[in-house]
Amino acid sequence: MSCLHKPPKRTKSEELALQEHMRKVAQENGKRLGLEGDEDLEFLLTGGELVKIRSRTWKKNRFYKLQEDCKTLWHESKKTFMRDQTFTIDDIESVRKGRQSEGLKKHTDPNMEELCFSIFFKGRKKNLDLMAASGDEASRWVRALEKIINNMRNLNRHWIINCMRKADKNADNQMNLKELKHFLRQINVEVDDTYAEEIFKKCDTSNSGSLEGAEIKHFYDLLTHREEIDVIYKQYALAEGQMSARDLLNFLLNEQREEATPEDAYTLIEKYEVDEIGKVQKQMTKDGFLMYLHHDDGSILNPAHKPVYQDMSQPLNHYYISSSHNTYLMEDQVKGPSSTEAYIRALMKSCRCVELDCWDGDSGEPVIYHGYTMTSKVRFKDVIQAIKEYAFKTSDYPVILSLENHCSVEQQKLMAHHMISILGDALLTRPLGNTMPTNFPSPEELKGKFIIKGKRLNKLNDTVSEEDEAADVKENGQKAKSKVCEILDCKKTKMKLAKQLSDIVIYCKSVHFHGFEHARDNQDFYEMSSFKESKAFSLADTSATAFIHHNMDKLSRIYPAGSRTNSSNYNPVPMWNVGCQIVALNFQTPSKEMHLNQGRFLPNGFCGYVLKPEFQRSPSSQFDPGSLIKGPWLKRQTFHVMVISAQQLPKLNKDKAKSIVDPLVRVEIHGVPADNASKETHYIDNNGFNPMWNENFSFNIYVPELALVRFVVEDYDSTSQNDLIGQYCLPLTSVQKGYRHVPLLTKRGDVICSAGLFVHLMLIDAE
Q1: Residue ranges of the PH domain (predicted)?
Q2: From the candidates 370, 406, 418, 760, which is the catalytic residue?
Q3: Is 682 a catalytic residue?
Q4: Does the domain formed by 18-154 have CATH 2.30.29.30?
Q5: Which of 64, 130, 218, 267, by CA, is between 20 and 30 Å from 660?
């Protein structure tokens, strides 16, 4: 006999009352999202039946709906041992219409394209493949979900209010002392009972034993009070306690060190002032000032560097290029899954060079996987299709397809056919212009183009005739005779290269590296080498200036050591220091190295291309990152950083209600060896909501054009390694001076909506 008892059945009036209550809760949460009365929100709250698809034979009807909190999606589960399933809107990375996932392409017919959509999640959670009853219904689901996702991401300022609602256990819009304590834990603040009672009594002006209405507003104002902002505001607000346009201009000139004008001050007041009377009077209230500091104009990243601002008409090899290694892998290098989704994720992060490890497939179709391992396989054709669809969604600049070719001649021909037929005119099949090139075209000239990197049978100005079976073809001084192929030495094995594949390798012909002098005397500009990390680091240590000059004429690709079976990464900074363009990393692995990569490519429109400094492009340069000899690269500066405070740091252990973080902040400089440094604050006990440090650091900088600044917030632990709370990285040359807010990202590089650091920054030229 079961010991479980069903709850007593509600009466009809109780059921109606509950439904009305839940309707009001949903309305209130919709209002919070700015979607009050929105038809798409109502559609999600009502829900509907969709077909969940896992295989050709596993296709089950499931009911999906948005819960009344407007941030959790619920769906039923028919498994008797499982509860109904939920996931939060915040878990969703993207929603894609059509048969975009591998599962839908494999398990549904092409005529179902309009009915299908997929929900892709952050991290490694499997995507959810769904099918609606009609194309219109599928579009409605996608549109509604995208709307609520976007509104949730714009909800930063309402985070505290949302936590208040969570703490209001009985949803009576009142907060008793017990709920107040729960709320403080929700927002990551540990307080003793005496202090909690003190706040409560101060706000409970009605002496009712609970806070409601204006009392909760008072409590909210006390809680969100920013003492450090008050001090700054009072220092400059000289117009009867308000900040006039003149006061704001003084602040911009003296603190923010901006070349501001009165018009700039007026623009900021119009843009950020929340009080209409303040706008009319050309004044900025404290709330407007806080709003300014929390948006792009008050951010650490120079807003002028957010769009593409660099000269994009230089030769391709004059740029750092965001690059991925073994792009097809979702996890490790030995037994992890291969997937088109890995390419999509890399491209959506503006990766501009992806790798395709190509092998013969059993069905006659080439496949991509990590050879001689247990990693799964994905069809080459499917990968090319996914690349075509997502290559230029976040950046218009060219994408390099780096081919690691292990296929037979017949399947190489198929590879060439698929790339030509699928990529169409976007595939570069001949040099630009009407004459034989002597240098790379620019990213601007190559917009929207795909460039193939791989082996080639001949020089660009030579021809290989299919009719001439005795044609001699040279490769690094070696001769071979073949109708359509050449014998090449590849990892101690012999392989043949199909002419059709060879012909579409234009600006990135792969050749073996025999030394910098040999490359200078024998290689054309488009002939490039790949270096495993140990070789590249050795060359950077022993021949840095020669390496830099090599990269002034040619492209270099660096890739991780084969021993990194867990898909870990090497430090990319020393490779950028010697001008290497294609510094390939394992994009699937969240790590410090990927944070640096994200920081390097953060400015210039996050387009995947960043112009190298002049001293890495000028033939007369004698720059050596390991030496501080005088030159245009040596611009000695002192970087002053005051870590003031943090706001709304997330709880790391959400399962433990009383778990509060003990945060500390570390500031790191990554650049030439002389610039590398790291300094950190003390930790603060039990306060993730509004910890304050007011600690000053200074860093001596010698080559600012190569320096990256990384902010790291950790949860201090005396007995084990600290846990990462959040991080942010950007080039020193893109840092704004003065009082700035620093957004925080997760380990995977996603924005933590409510969290941030408040700092003061100054960069002073050394005498």
Answers
A1: 43-150
A2: 370
A3: no
A4: yes
A5: 218
